[in-house]
Amino acid sequence: MATIDVYDIGKNRVGEMEICDSVFNSDVKEYLIHEALKTQLANRRAGTVAVKNRAMVAGSGKKPFRQKGTGQARQGCKRAPQYPGGGVAFGPQPKTYAVGMNKKARKAAIRSALSFLFKENKMTVVNAFDLERISTKGFVGTLDGFNVAKTLLVIEGSNRNLELSARNVKDVKILKPEGLNIFDMIKYKNIIFTQDAVRKVEGAFKS
Predict the structure, then answer these.
(1) What are the pLDDT digits (tens) for 145-167?
(2) I need a labelling partner for 89 at 20 to 30 A (CA). Which of 8, 46, 140, 189 fits?
């Protein structure tokens, strides 16, 4: 099994831990990462844009003038698209953009992304991320010690001081292990796990 150094929040090495090869040190399958990202982004689309067609526009369906003898082009009703306030022809209507992905393939994509971060030295493990008090400045100072930018923090359980200290910090996001997803791992580039979170992720994604 692969091993990784474990630090405290002062970036002092306090030991090392073994991590599951099938989760953190497997082959990186880029096509699965791409497929999972495409699926996640597609499923985020609301698909609620809509306009009124001529059947939905309020107004009379009566002919505005007689068919012949006026010298004008024949018209059916004032709700037609060529009239101001008329219905839109072939406009957008609500639709779903949902795309499915096999559960095994989705888990394999997560494993590939985690393995990529581990092999690129973008993954850090801390024994715990406990702050003495709620302090954005204190949290930023702690994070600066790890010399990482755009960071995803994965913690197990509730950590009120950390969550409130980090909520207004740009390019930092806190997730629980069950919320781990491809989009955030790609967006934030660096990932910091607590030891408990590592074990929870291994239990969820071990092949």
Answers:
(1) 998 889 999 999 889 999 999 99
(2) 46
**Tokens 């755009």 found at:** 150
16-34: pLDDT as tens digits: 999 999 999 999 999 999 9
Cα–Cα distances in Å, from 90 out to 54, 58, 75, 168?
Answer: 10, 18, 19, 44
Residue 116 and residue 186 in contact, taking contact as beta carbons nearer than 8 Å: no
Alpha-carbon span 187 to 183, nearest angstrom? 6
* 121 phi-psi bin (left φ>0, alpha ψ -120 to 50, beta other): left
Residues 6+ apart with CB under 8 A from 49: 92, 94
Rounded Cα–Cα distance for residues 86 and 73 (Å): 17
| Cβ-contact 153, 173 below 8 angstroms | yes
Q: Which amino acid is at 15?
A: G
Helix, coil or strand: residue 90: coil
Main-chain phi, psi angles of 27, to 5 degrees: -65, 140
CA–CA gap between residue 20 and residue 149 (Å, rounded): 26
Domains and CATH numbers, the chain: 2-45+100-205 (3.40.1370.10), 47-96 (no CATH)
Helices (H), 45-172: 103-119, 136-144, 160-166
- Spatial distance between the Cα atoms of 165 and 138, rounded to a whole number of angstroms: 8
